[in-house]
Amino acid sequence: MFHIFGKKLFLVDHLQKFVDIHNHILPGIDDGAKTSEDAIALIRGFSEFGVDNFIATPHIIHNYYPNTPQSINQSLALLKNELLKVDLREVSIAASAEHMIDDNFETILDRKDVMHMRNDYLLIEMSYLQPPLNFDTAIVKIASKRYYPVLAHPERYNFLHFKPRKYGHYKEQGILFQLNFLSLGDFYGKEVHRMTMKLLEDGLIDFAASDVHNLHQLKALKELTVSRRVLRQMLPIINNTIATFY
Question: Which one, 11, 54, 146, 159, has least CB within 10 Å?
């Protein structure tokens, strides 16, 4: 527990038994943990505030991180074996992916090479600067395959900050929103924080996650403080994430 009786409200004091549905702890396959040692250090860090249940979500990005179910499951098996060696048997870790909506996404969707989360939720992302031309058709195709699209960190897409009505349009399309915890502070900048507060006020966030890639981000998460008002807004989202993915 962290500073539970202090004046400031540390978010991690309210994450016991949380299921982290978006992170990059699988070693050696994207811009997250580089080695098994890195991954174990992250997992130990999470355990300090009561989180030991993970859905790992390495990137799948065509020609950049061209991961497949095979490469992801291989990394998962390696990490699980290393966790046993260091007697971290209480850790629960499953594998999914963070899918970039790019010119190859619909191809891997048709080939059934996507990695969905529990209950057929599919984590997706897009460029921070502009939407992909095939975004709307990709969303329709995701639904046709009976997946539920979950848009990672909607607060971080810069182009949406100038078109806030698009958020409502996306929700009408059946897209669920996953907030990054670090967006509750200034880690990604003041504009991302401002949009985070608006999305919370509008009740548009469905799930939350760490999106942790490294120890620097994990340290920032441990130090993150929120107001009582924001905590009241976040607790139902945290509980919904646990209830949906535990």
Answer: 146
pLDDT tens for 170-214 read: 999 999 999 999 999 999 999 999 999 999 999 999 999 999 999
Quickly count: other Cβ atoms within 10 Å of residue 85's Cβ. Answer: 9
Q: How far is 41 from 23, CA to CA, in rounded Å? A: 14
pTM: 0.95
Domains of the chain: 9-245 (3.20.20.140)
Cα separation of 135 and 138, whole Å? 5
β-pairing, 9-10 vs 225-226, is: antiparallel
Please tell me the distance from the alpha carbon of residue 51 to that of residue 54, in angstroms, as a whole number.
8
> Which pair of tokens denotes residue 200?
């919370």
Instruction: Assess contact for 185 and 220: CB atoms under 8 A.
Output: yes
Q: Write out pLDDT tens, residues 153-166.
A: 999 999 999 999 99
